[in-house]
Amino acid sequence: MAISIHAVTPSFAAEIGDVDLGQPLSADDVAAIKAAFTRYAVLVFPDQTFSDESHLDFARHFGPLETSVFAMRKDHKMRLAPQMADVGNLDAEDRILAENDRIRLYQLGNRLWHTDSSFKRLPAYCSILHGRSIPPIGGQTEFADLRAAYDALPDSMKRRLAGLVAWHSLMTSRAKLGFTDFDETEKKAFEPVPQVLVRRLQDSGRMSLYLASHAGAISGLSKADAEALLEELVEHATQRQFVYSHRWRVNDLVMWDDRCTMHRGMAFDDQRFRRDMRRATVSDVAPTCEQMGLAVAAE
Ligand code: OGA
Ligand code: MN
After folding, report:
1. Is 8:14 a contact under the CB 8 Å cutoff?
2. Residue with the nearest Cα to atom 2 of ligand 1?
């Protein structure tokens, strides 16, 4: 049976049915998923029960996998394979992370609007997140459509943004929550990297903002002007009409396009309820400045 596609919103989120991602996919199914993913930037696959290995195999259809940033810390006991980002609230022994655990404090950064890996020179193309355990209340994930947000900008703002380059660092987003506990290896790995503020998506041809809580400075602007502009753009892009809020069911697999969305995890009682969420992340094809044909001056 061919896969079925049900729009959740007219052009941002869709549900995909009649497919078992734990089984090898036919070329037609892969092509249909890719076509849907060009139109919709968020795809929800309900009721997927599969192993981490099948999850990673599914992700490999879309490109090379990233390695989780946690793999960098020798003192982190990893619960999952290094290609799987652990975004739940459990430790390697499957217990709920204590309130002051470094991993928990670090994960709180996921509550801020962001897109994955924009702090890497070669950022993410897409993220594929599986909900294994879901709290009964709270813990939704919200997604903002940065293509629709771009389209809705006045022409004067579109002109102002063309060619601008922002500098992204994981330390910038974490500093917003007072988290500064990085070792020397991390400080080096998380040096700010340049990203365009506006990009054209090669597959759909659509224009999109490219924003994240990781963004701080903008080349050619004062710190104050850069922060004011980023704040204004994030506020614009996260208005209700651009946002889809995902209420998780156990075994939902949600896939989003990191090139043209932001997302954030909503609060839940994380000292009481288990939330086991596992994410595979696929790298983009080239750094964003390169994709937009921009030469970047050093910051
Ligand atoms: C992520 C993320 C938010 C959430 O997986 O990249 O930010 O709701 N998740 O778990
Ligand atoms: Mn994320």
Report:
1. yes
2. 110
Query: How far is residue 118's CA from residue 163's CA, in Å, rounded to a whole number?
Result: 17
Asked if 50 contacts 21 with a C-beta cutoff of 8 angstroms, the reply is: yes
Q: Are 119 and 215 in contact (CB under 8 A)?
A: no
Mean pLDDT over 96-107 rounds to 94
Do 130 and 250 contact (CB within 8 A), yes or no? Answer: no
Residues 179 and 111: beta-carbon distance below 8 Å: no
Tens-place pLDDT, residues 102-159: 999 999 999 999 999 999 999 999 999 999 999 999 999 999 999 999 999 999 999 9
Residue 287 pLDDT exceeds 80 = yes
Residue 250 to residue 131: CA distance in whole angstroms? 6
Please give the torsion angle defined by the CA atoms of residues 92, 97, 101 and 105, in that order, rounded to the nearest 10 degrees. Answer: 110
**d(C-alpha 147, C-alpha 149), whole Å:** 5
pTM, to two decimals = 0.97
* pLDDT tens readout for residues 191-219: 999 999 999 999 999 999 999 999 999 99
Which of the listed CATH numbers 3.40.228.10, 3.30.750.80, 3.60.130.10, 3.40.50.300 matches domain 4-291? 3.60.130.10
Q: CB under 6 Å to ligand 1: residues?
A: 87, 110, 116, 127, 129, 141, 263, 265, 277, 279
Ligand 1, atom 10, lies closest to the CA of: 265
